[in-house]
Specification:
The complex is a heterodimer of chains A (about 250) and B (about 170).
Chain A lengths: L2 H10 L11 H15 L13 E2 L5 E3 L7 E3 L7 E3 L19 E12 L2 E8 L6 H4 L1 E7 L11 E3 L10 E6 L3 E2 L2 E2 L3 E5 L4 E6 L5 E3 L1 E6 L6 E6 L11 E7 L8
Chain B lengths: L4 H23 L2 H17 L1 H4 L4 H18 L22 H13 L3 H12 L4 H8 L3 H14 L21
Helix pairs in contact in B: 1-2, 1-4, 2-4, 4-6, 6-8, 7-8
The chains are: A mainly beta (about 250), B mainly alpha (about 170).
Chain lengths: ~250, ~170
């Protein structure tokens, strides 16, 4: 018998290890919830607050909430740019080896290299989203969570992440040759979110998806602006939210 | 009960022990191994409609390995070490358990990447191409990680380990 055989034997019968019966009821309940989360729900609209955004290197101003300004782009405390094709899900509170993805996953329908851009929320504590809500732009080939990449993870510093207003806004950019959308999330009842295209002066409207966590108050809208893969991202300014009557939200 | 649930339960029962054992090899911790195996089966169940007619076991293997080894993809997470545990010199050459214990300890001293390659290649018997695809590594990287890890484990196919060697201290001298 070779040492390689010894290794295989040892791996198949490791001393001091005894498999435990797993809780199949829990497995199927949790798997069922995960399956339902993957059936994406797009839509949702409501109303409130305004912010002004200088996308492309300056600041987002959020008068509606305690977070008075949110650095955009490469603010080290709020932004992490993962290496290409990195996959680094945050462990959930309940399972240290599971990704802590919570709530609806937003499919953009935009693909690059066979992978679709998706937006989703990660948290290490679903009961404390105000300090742990992180919005992630990633890509997926299969649509299953274990296949998600983390391309841009964006969050506000500290607490106040569920306060009314805009949060975690990231300007579109070229990342490893891939064009990313301008995206973020909004807490409040916005019926419309718009920005101004710096090149054309035209107003463009964001696509929005209602997002909710476990708690009654854990609601937000994940938004992103349309873009063309392979072309430089538009420079957007004046990010603004409107209510259902067309009034700017302050 | 949803369609296919019986199949899933049968699959889970048949693969649970092996997944836990693999997770234990990857994590070195029984509790984490149970958690990881359970989290893997959750994902397999979530994707059961898609994977049941393909190769659910290969899917589970991929999910498990990626769940456990995702840590290495983060910056500053590589805890590779060149220092391996001292080989125990068993009193009895036939002390299989002691030898296995040493091998498992040595496995834990590998870097996460090396350990994943070893487990996939030599526990799951996956090919180099399968390992490369499942870990999103190049075939060359898999080959070199495998060689390096086996070297650290002091394993050369065909060589019988010198298990009978006793140190002076252990021999009571």
């Amino acid at each position: 018998m070779t040492q390689l055989d010894d290794l295989k034997d040892a791996m198949h019968s490791p001393p001091d290890f005894h498999p435990a019966p797993l809780d199949m009821q829990h497995v199927m309940a949790a798997g069922g919830r995960m399956r339902r989360r993957r059936r994406l729900a797009v839509g949702g609209a409501s109303a409130l607050t305004v912010a002004a955004l200088m996308v492309g290197g300056s600041q987002l101003i959020n008068p509606g909430g305690p977070v008075s300004s949110i650095p955009v782009a490469a603010g080290p405390s709020t932004v992490s740019l993962a290496p290409t094709a990195a996959s680094a899900p945050v462990p959930s509170a309940g399972n240290s080896s599971a990704p802590g993805i919570l709530g609806t996953i937003v499919e953009t329908g935009k693909k690059v290299g066979g992978r679709q851009w998706v937006l989703y929320v990660e948290t290490i504590d679903p009961d404390n989203l105000d300090e742990t809500f992180t919005l992630v732009l990633g890509r997926t080939r299969t649509g299953t969570i274990d296949d998600f990449t983390v391309d841009i993870a964006s969050s506000d510093p500290g607490a106040g992440r569920m306060a009314p207003g805009f949060h975690a806004v990231q300007a579109g950019r070229s990342l490893d040759g891939r064009t990313t959308p301008t995206f973020g999330y909004y807490v409040g009842d916005a019926a419309r979110i718009t920005a101004r295209d710096g090149a054309t002066g035209k107003t463009v409207e964001a696509k929005r998806t209602a997002w909710s966590g476990r708690g009654e108050a854990d609601k937000a809208q994940i938004f992103w602006f349309d873009f063309t893969e392979g072309r430089p991202p538009a420079t957007l300014t004046d990010l603004t939210a409107y209510d259902d009557k067309g009034a700017r939200l302050n | 009960m949803a369609r296919g649930d019986d199949d899933f339960i049968a699959f889970a029962q048949a693969s649970s022990s092996r997944l836990q054992r693999a997770a234990y090899l990857l994590t070195g911790d029984q509790h984490q191994a149970e958690e990881a195996a359970q989290a893997t089966l959750v994902r397999v169940y979530a994707a059961w409609g898609r994977v049941r007619r393909k190769d659910p076991y290969a899917y589970a293997r991929t999910v498990l390995t990626n769940l456990v080894t995702d840590q290495w993809r983060r910056p500053m997470r590589e805890y590779a070490t060149e220092t391996m545990p001292e080989r125990q010199a068993p009193q009895d050459v036939a002390d299989v358990v002691s030898k296995r214990r040493w091998l498992i300890a040595a496995l834990q001293a590998l870097s996460p990447r090396e350990r994943a390659v070893i487990v996939l290649r030599h526990f799951f018997d996956a090919s180099e191409a399968e390992v490369a695809r499942e870990l999103d590594l190049s075939a060359g990287t898999v080959k070199s990680l495998n060689s390096r890890a086996l070297a650290k484990l002091r394993i050369t196919a065909g060589l019988v380990p010198p298990l009978g060697t006793e140190t002076k201290a252990e021999a009571g001298l």
